[in-house]
Amino acid sequence: MSASINLSIVFVIVAVLSLSSISTSHAARSLLQLPNLPTIPSLPQPTLPKIPNFPTTLPPLPSVASLPTANSPLPSLPSVVPKMTLPPMPANPLPNMPSLPKIPTIPTLTPPPSN
């Protein structure tokens, strides 16, 4: 039953696609058979302003004396580091957690030996 429904759905999809293909090809053929259209006149080209010349030389690089060196000393760390402390433990002891009840097991039966 479901196979015939699937087959009919596929048949409908193929039919719709082929009908749309026919109408598309008919439209393309009718566009090709149109008479020659008039040409569009070319527009006048605007005059562009002249681009100024940019300098071709690069600005001077910073001197080596102003750059930091590899042997320069690092800034020192602060001498006073705050100590991390934990909050105090509660005075009353924690309650005991109840244990889970024991689940009874079902004995397994062995099949009788076959002769």
TrEMBL record:
Signal sequence residues: 1-27
The keyword Signal appears for this protein:
yes
Which residue ranges are recorded for the region named Disordered? Answer: 92-115
Keyword set for this entry?
A: Signal
Record field: compositional bias (Low complexity): 99-108
Annotated membrane-spanning segments are: none
* Protein name in the entry: RNA-binding protein 12-like
Per the UniProt record, the source organism is Solanum lycopersicum
